Recover the amino acids of this structure.
């Protein structure tokens, strides 16, 4: 009786997977910092200027804040 075995070396695949995970974590952190800053500045301006609810400034600041929140959720999902 003869037995034949096959051994697959997954070392390189695992190293690539670890590299990808570390890259995504790093990119996520690097993106989140400026996005949070943009959101903070927009909220500060909105509170400081206190524009009328129908003004362009209010709509612009609301759009910046809303899209900043969206980008933060996307980065968190990474």
């Amino acid at each position: 009786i003869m037995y034949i075995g096959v051994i697959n070396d997954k070392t390189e695949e695992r190293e690539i997977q670890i590299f990808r995970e570390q890259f995504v974590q790093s990119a996520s952190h690097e993106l989140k910092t400026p996005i949070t800053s943009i959101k903070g500045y927009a909220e500060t301006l909105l509170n400081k200027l206190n524009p009328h609810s129908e003004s362009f400034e209010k709509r612009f600041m609301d759009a910046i804040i809303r899209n900043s929140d969206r980008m933060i959720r996307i980065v968190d999902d990474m």
